[in-house]
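Teaching note: in complex prediction, the entire set of molecules is handled at once rather than each chain in isolation. The prompt given to students was simply: 'Predict the structure of this complex.' The entities are:
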Amino acid sequence: QKEVEQDPGPLSVPEGAIVSLNCTYSNSAFQYFMWYRQYSRKGPELLMYTYSSGNKEDGRFTAQVDKSSKYISLFIRDSQPSDSATYLCAMTGVWTGNQFYFGTGTSLTVIP
Amino acid sequence: DADVTQTPRNRITKTGKRIMLECSQTKGHDRMYWYRQDPGLGLRLIYYSFDVKDINKGEISDGYSVSRQAQAKFSLSLESAIPNQTALYFCATSDHNYEQYFGPGTRLTVT
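The expected output is the structure of the full assembly:
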């Protein structure tokens, strides 16, 4: 079983839609949960991070972590064509040797 | 100028050749990482280093070696390249538990 599971998509939505991206994980020692965005032919860039359980909002983006279910989500409101990218979840923790474990990424296309 | 740079950006090489990928950073971070990215497999950790004297194997270190020449420089070597090492390679740095900064990537093709 992989440490982090993520549906690869692809996901295609109309402009203005609400997008939901999800990951599940198996290691309860993870403490930090991140979402990265990767545009084509670019390196990933950090979008949001959350420590432990809870919600975090940043503009049109909301990250949720449910440690009891080992499930994290990223919501994008009022999606824009510029949001078209691959979104990767990532996790780490002190007790996991501070290594980062990534999902395979979900490809998102927002259609104007 | 970019905070994390990688050279070369693209490389085609033949089976059995030795190749080195280089990474430099100006962020002043102690932690540096090498990943490879393959379609359907995501990012997988090859090696990581938490300071100049610290080198650790990641998930897929076989066939690779690294050198941390200075705080700002971390090189990845393929001693004898093979076709299944064809991939996109990323260097990353980190100063915290949660935030990594990635370079632009090196696209390596082994024929």
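Point out the following to students. The first strand of chain B starts at residue 4 and ends at 7. DSSP finds no helices and eleven strands in chain B.
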